[in-house]
Design brief:
The protein has 16 helices and 33 strands. The protein is of the alpha+beta class. It has three domains: 150 residues, Rossmann fold, CATH 3.40.50.800; 194 residues, BirA Bifunctional Protein, domain 2, CATH 3.30.930.10; 175 residues, YbaK/aminoacyl-tRNA synthetase-associated domain (YbaK protein). The strands form eight sheets. Strands 4, 8, 9, 10, 11, 12, 13, 23 and 26 form a nine-stranded mixed beta sheet that branches. Strands 1-30-29-31-32-33 form a six-stranded mixed beta sheet, sandwiched between helices. Helix 3 runs antiparallel to helix 7. The protein is globular, with a radius of gyration of 30 Å. The structure holds one RNA strand of 77 nucleotides.
RNA sequence: CGGGGCGUGGCGCAGCUUGGUAGCGCGGGUGCUUUGGGAGCACUAGGUCGCAGGUUCGAAUCCUGUCGCCCCGACCA
């Protein structure tokens, strides 16, 4: 299939007017968008590549990988969070896809392609339509000409589970694992960093179905292994971490992080390598609290001391002796607005993700959690609460429910939400949900607000404060914390880019969408499910973030758009052109993915570009061409090697396929 | 959504405070010279300053609105 290019090689003139195989759009005959690389894509003349490299960093890019992908001509922004994949990047994406495909297939997973346009009623059945389309929801949605609502798939649980409900009847068909590599649409609150967080991006997503949880665990472990092989084959350094399941739901989940400074996630890991988790999820041992003196509880005048810092400065307390109280309001899909009092030890920070999970679990009846926001003056006004009833800055865990009483207007009159809102109108609960982190509840005696302005209590005990709040793990683990598995170990922080995530979903979606099978005993039961994602386009950029130097990208060989670039140093030297063309043909024939820089540019320009676009091996055909001598340069090590043209193929093959 | 910043030839920027109808570098084209790490010289094409109003004799510049893009945040009372 590479014959078209071979034929043209002979006719390509010095001015490169010959039509190359690449321009015949042979690729479209592949049929599959994300299909494997085939021979028409084996080689490329740079003069035909529409390659535009930039000298200056584009103003739109902030992080190095984004700058390099733009400068080296891999991508262009079309609008915020939406990018075109140019020819070189498309090859990278196809290579990554192919590695993913091979490893997925090796586990017995089946490739499919599911619709991106998905009917609202599917999402209503799973209970996610409102949450995904209203407010902070990320699903692009539209109404078709029949007036039916449709969403653009941000993920495919609903579709795949519906298919499973249709197709899976018996335990004899199980387990199965289906995957696809496809464009996803997510209307991100804030797209950023190019392909890192786009609104349209390429993802591999897989969904497995099982007769029981043990089988799910088995496939989950298979996926863990497959993912490790995929990232290793892509040449990436990754770390697998415990993760929060987030909006997808379910129980166990693990993320795969490409370690890089520009990563959006914070990973906390122990030096012994036995524990690693996303900070959202991480657990650790808090430091011991300093004990407070035995004096009985008494009021302390603390005018203007509304922060932990001020209390500490004025009275010499240690932050660990204080219970701080955060006042928040959680809004749910059914319109409920639930005031929440969170008690934390003064030296600890709230982990919002843990809080959101706790709220979702405790108040499951109210549907999806849409928002958690602080209660402040604006909130008091909005809900016509008694002004001044809530003594901000002096809150105690026992703040009375009657501070939520309304003054004046009848409930809800002045504050209905926009009439066209798809979500139920908000309705304020008139009592607090009281939660406390274990580190706060463990304090025998502590300092806390007195629920009146300018006053705290010293030596309070939980017994003094009425009913105990619900105990939940709410504190954020921090770098330096002691580890649970071995208190002599401490958590260390690394930044990471999440490129993969695997979940044990359980039966959440199968139950909601009535996807059942008949078990061995002849009874119907919901399928067990797992899901497994890889951000293919994000992975490409993460690879750049992890593999670059001052001169440009240094692609790992396995995902480089081409393995080799042959540079003709001086196009006016017929001997050089002739030798380069000969080597170009030889490498193609040997199946090497090779590009030929046949542009009429000075050598320096071509060297710079070769470095910038990051091709792993550069062959320079220059002055030595007359005597059949060429130069082989490795992009990463920069090592140069002079050799006879006849030895190039052998030498390269050793490097490329050791 | 809140905060901050930015929109001026293809790209990166200056000009704006103190209104007088655009400038620099790179890039593009042509020619000559040069030819192993982003060449030199000459000539040349290309923008009416995001868009819409307004003020003014006159607006890239001042005012209002609007659109787009980037960054931080959307928890710590």
């Amino acid at each position: 299939m590479q014959c078209a290019e071979s034929r043209n090689r002979a006719s390509a003139s010095k001015h490169h007017t010959g039509v190359n195989a690449q321009t015949t759009l042979a690729g479209s005959a592949l049929g599959q968008w994300y299909g494997p690389l085939t021979s028409p894509f084996l080689a490329m003349r740079v003069s035909r590549l529409m390659l535009v490299t930039l000298r200056d960093d584009p103003a739109e890019a902030e992080i190095v990988s984004h700058k390099l992908l733009l400068r080296a001509g891999y991508t262009r922004r079309i609008s915020s969070g939406i990018y075109a994949y140019l020819p070189l990047l498309w090859r990278v994406l196809q290579k990554i896809s192919q590695i993913v495909r091979e490893e997925m297939n090796a586990t017995g997973a089946l490739e499919v392609l599911l619709p991106q346009l998905q009917p609202a009623d599917l999402w209503e059945r799973s209970g996610r339509w409102a949450g995904y389309t209203a407010g902070e929801g990320i699903m692009f949605h539209l109404t078709d000409r029949q007036g039916r609502e449709q969403g653009l798939g941000p993920t495919h649980e609903e579709v795949i589970t519906t298919l499973a409900a249709d197709l899976i009847r018996s335990y004899r068909q199980l387990p199965v694992n289906l995957y696809q590599i496809q464009t996803k649409f997510r209307d991100e609150i804030r797209p950023r960093f190019g392909l890192m967080r786009g609104r349209e991006f390429i993802m591999k997503d897989a969904y497995s179905f099982h007769a029981d949880e043990a089988s799910l665990r088995e496939t989950y472990a298979d996926m863990d292994g497959a993912y490790r092989r995929i990232f290793a084959r892509c040449g990436l350094r990754t770390v697998a971490v415990e993760a929060d399941s987030g909006a997808i739901g379910g129980s166990a989940s693990q993320e795969f992080m490409v370690t890089a400074e520009a990563g959006e996630d914070l990973v906390l890991a122990s030096a012994d390598g036995r524990y690693a988790a996303n900070q959202e999820r991480a657990v650790s041992l808090a430091s011991e609290a300093l004990p407070l003196g035995p004096d009985p509880c008494q009021q302390l005048s603390t005018p203007g001391q509304t922060t932990i810092e001020a209390l500490v400065a004025a009275h010499g307390f240690d932050p660990s002796q204080i219970v701080k109280v955060l006042l928040l309001a959680a809004r749910f899909a059914d319109g409920t607005v639930q005031p929440v009092l969170v008690s934390l030890r003064g030296d600890q920070q709230l982990n919002e993700v843990k809080l959101a999970n706790a709220l979702t679990a405790v108040l499951a009846d109210h549907g999806a959690l849409l928002e958690v926001a602080p209660i402040d003056g604006a909130f008091v006004e909005r809900w016509s609460l008694t002004p001044g009833a809530i003594p901000f800055g002096y809150l105690g865990p026992d703040l009375a429910d009657d501070t939520l009483d309304q003054k004046g207007k009848a409930p809800g009159v002045a504050l209905t939400s926009a009439p066209q809102s798809p979500v139920a109108p908000p309705r304020l609960e008139r009592h607090f949900l009281r939660l406390a982190d274990l580190t706060a509840l463990d304090l025998p005696r502590f300092v806390c607000g007195a629920n009146q302005a300018d006053s705290h209590r010293v030596g309070a005990t939980w017994a003094d404060l009425g009913p105990l709040p619900q105990t939940v793990d709410l504190r954020a683990a921090q770098p330096g914390d002691r580890c649970l598995h071995d208190p002599s170990q401490h958590l260390e922080a690394t930044r990471g880019i999440e490129v993969g995530h695997i979940f044990q979903l359980g039966r959440k979606y199968s139950t909601a969408l009535d996807a059942t099978f008949t078990n061995e005993a002849g009874q119907e039961e919901p399928l067990w499910m797992g899901c497994y994602g890889i951000g293919v386009s994000r992975l490409a950029q993460a690879a750049v973030e992890q593999n670059h130097d001052a001169n440009g990208i240094c692609w790992p060989l396995a995902i480089a758009p081409y393995a080799v670039i042959i540079v003709i140093a001086n196009l006016n030297e017929p001997l050089q052109v002739k030798l380069a063309e000969r080597l170009y043909g030889e490498l193609q024939s040997a199946g090497v993915e090779v590009m030929l820089d046949d542009r009429d540019e000075r050598a320096g320009v071509k060297f710079k570009d070769a470095d910038l676009i990051g091709i792993p091996f550069r062959v320079v055909v220059g002055r030595g061409a007359a005597s059949g001598q060429i130069e082989l340069v490795s992009r990463v090590e920069g090592e140069r090697q002079d050799l006879a043209a006849e030895d190039l193929l052998t030498c390269l093959m050793q490097r490329i396929r050791p």
